[in-house]
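R.M. (postdoc): so does anyone remember the format we settled on? I'll just put the structure tokens first.
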């Protein structure tokens, strides 16, 4: 049951945990997204600049470059202005969420949560959405 809107969208998944990438990738592909994968923020920023995905889902804590630093870097590139950035973390401390939103994330989600919830949220995002902490 593919959503026609999502069929034309590309999502970049950035996480250092292989099982998280696999689980999210499966769910996004099942919903019709084109999926790109990166294992850290450095790989993520390079892929984002090259591919300009509509949605970027990144873990907060990763080696080499964390999700907040990656987000700040991506927001400095005008070509990615319309990309929606979702930061995922097991860290529910409100200061982390505020830091992520200030860095340019559109949404900050705390784990654990079902992958289907992340996919549905990604489908609902548009470039005009205000940042949110969920």
């Amino acid at each position: 049951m593919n959503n026609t809107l999502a069929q034309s969208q590309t999502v970049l998944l950035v996480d250092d945990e292989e099982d998280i990438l696999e689980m999210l990738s499966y769910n996004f592909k099942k919903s019709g997204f084109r999926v790109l994968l990166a294992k850290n923020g450095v790989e993520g920023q390079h892929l984002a600049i090259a591919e300009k995905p509509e949605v970027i889902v990144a873990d907060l804590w990763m080696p080499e470059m964390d999700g907040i630093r990656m987000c700040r870097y991506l927001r400095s590139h005008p070509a990615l202005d319309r990309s929606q950035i979702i930061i995922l973390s097991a860290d529910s401390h409100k200061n982390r969420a505020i830091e992520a939103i200030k860095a340019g994330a559109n949404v900050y989600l705390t784990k654990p949560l079902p992958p289907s919830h992340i996919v549905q949220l990604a489908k609902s995002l548009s470039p005009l959405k205000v940042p949110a902490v969920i």
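R.M.: ...and that's the designed sequence above, right after the tokens. Also worth knowing: Residues 1-7 have pLDDT under 50 and may be disordered. The beta strands are 10-14, 34-38, 55-59, 84-89, 107-110, 132-133.
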